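Hydroxyacylglutathione hydrolase, mitochondrial (Cyanistes caeruleus), 237 aa
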Amino acid sequence: VLRAILTTHHHWDHARGNEELAQLFPGLRVFGADERIGALTHKVTHGQELSFGAIRVRCLFTPCHTSGHMCYFMWEDDSPDAPALFSGDTLFVGGCGQFFEGTAEQMHTNLTQILGTLPEDTKVFCGHECTVRNLKFALKVEPENEMVKEKLAWARQRDDEDLPTVPSTLHEEFLYNPFLRVTEEPVQRFTGRTDPVEVLRTLRSERDNFKKPKERPNPQAMLAFDWGLFGPFLEKK
């Protein structure tokens, strides 16, 4: 029985189902930090702790991608399992979110003081599977970084097998994610900056302009096309 939703931010690809779920499950609690989140019932603040049975949750406010972005750090007392971070569009495997409603200063605080200080074995569950593209950019930033090369080869293999690349761990992210490596000499050399915030700002700008990936045709769609299943639609046009 669905009892609660923890929403990181208001963007439709993270919150669009809230209203319908709230109708399907009367009394459903919807947690978040932004009034723009659909069906919001409980507004949470930085450092607030929640519990759902044995699961403990700490809310971590990370404004930048959106002004009301909240991450959720979860653990169970006396459990051998590593804690988990649901990082939405703030921290990705090998990357970070775009600065739609915030600044490089904010993202630097998010990555170094809010998320970067969590236990190193924390599993990072981010909001999107853009690992291969992120790591291609990371390789451009640090072409000699063996961890980037290894992780990229692994992620490509996972993609080819239609398997997830999420989660990673925070420890791993510090080894190959350029946005967590702003004090490393190769990253500073790539950006031409030494101040960590300026390094981050330049990295994000470079990442935004990074070349678009070559689109691979969807194999199921190509098969349907070969079978003529799109014929009726094409004839209408």
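The chain is about 40% helix and 20% strand. Residues 135 and 201 are 18 Å apart (CA to CA). ok done for today
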